[in-house]
Amino acid sequence: MTANRNRWLVGTVLTLALAAFLSISLLPLLGGNGTRRGGEPTEANPTATDPASVQAELEAQARGYELVLEREPDNQTALQGLVDARIQLNDIDGVLGPLERLVELNPDVPDYAVLLAQTKQQLGDLEGAAQTYRQVLDQQPGNMNALQGLTVLLVQQNRPQAAIGLLQDTLKTAEQVQAEGATAGIDTVSVKLLLAQVHVEANSPGQAIALYDETIATAPEDFRPVLAKALVLQEQGEADTAQALFAQATALAPAQFKDQIELMSTQNQAAPTTGSESVDPLEPAPATEGSAD
């Protein structure tokens, strides 16, 4: 295998594809195009380009939402707006409180809980993040946002085997539920793609390719396993086979991904692979709060 940077190229591309297909981005949930109720702060002026002006306007928005919450502590529009404003201000500590309240008020909305877990993870509360991800998965074993979040957390902690176990258990759950004649609600194709990605990180490309082949056979119209297999084979020096798969992935992919895949195939051919420059895009998470069990 080549450098870690090249290994995680598979993860980077697959994550982008999963995000597009699984709607992983949670920020649209928090506003940005909605209409605020009367008496509540409005959105920042989209024409304001001066950073200081934008900063001041966001701070004023945040203060406005805080004033609304002093009168109405459970006003969800204000809570959402405050979270959104503080995210844009890069005030991650300030996101925690209103987001926790949104989770309490909306126990059946897993997106809030996943965003809370991501926030805890960024703040170094790994145990809290893992617990929140698992709470979502207890209710929805097939929630891909939570599965991907917990998988990334475990891999960042250099615990790929724990991530593999998590995903294998999810696939077993899907099989058991389907055997009972019920609908599992688990996207097994996406889970297998995520599992293959972890195998790549764990230096087991053969197992990853086997999963890609299995997924290609069961979901022949899905470009993601074809693309991921192409990247792994290219990394292993099988350029001709990889290029054929890149072409196949381009043909299968939605229009918005075609140019990206074609560019990727040519860029990777020219990319340096010197081991001395190995850098993981996913930096290890802080270990001060303990590992995610």
Task: Describe this structure as you would to a colleague.
This protein is mainly alpha-helical and 293 residues long. It is built from 13 helices and no strands. It has a domain at 1-23 and 142-271: Tetratricopeptide repeat domain (Serine Threonine Protein Phosphatase 5, Tetratricopeptide repeat).
Please summarize what this structure is:
The protein has 293 residues and is mainly α.
Give the arrangement of secondary structure elements.
Layout: H1 4-22, H2 51-71, H3 76-88, H4 92-105, H5 110-122, H6 126-139, H7 144-156, H8 160-179, H9 188-201, H10 205-218, H11 223-235, H12 239-252, H13 255-270
Helix pairs in contact: 1-9, 1-11, 2-3, 3-4, 4-5, 5-6, 5-7, 6-7, 7-8, 7-9, 8-9, 9-10, 10-11, 11-12, 12-13
Q: Provide a count of the helices.
A: 13
Query: For this structure, what is the CATH homologous superfamily of the domain at 1-23 and 142-271?
Result: Tetratricopeptide repeat domain
Radius of gyration, rounded?
21 Å
The overall strand count is 0
| Structural class assignment | mainly alpha
Q: What is the H/E string?
A: HHHHHHHHHHHHH
* Beta-strand residue fraction: under 5%
Q: What characteristic shape results from the CA principal axes?
A: globular
Q: Give the name of the CATH architecture of the domain at 1-23 and 142-271.
A: Alpha Horseshoe
Outline the low-pLDDT stretches: 1-42, 271-290
CATH topology name of the domain at 1-23 and 142-271, in short, is Serine Threonine Protein Phosphatase 5, Tetratricopeptide repeat
Helical content band: 55-70%
Mean pLDDT, as a whole number? Answer: 80
Measured distance between first and last alpha carbons: 29 Å
Question: What profile does the largest beta sheet have?
Answer: none
CATH class (first level) name of the domain at 1-23 and 142-271: Mainly Alpha
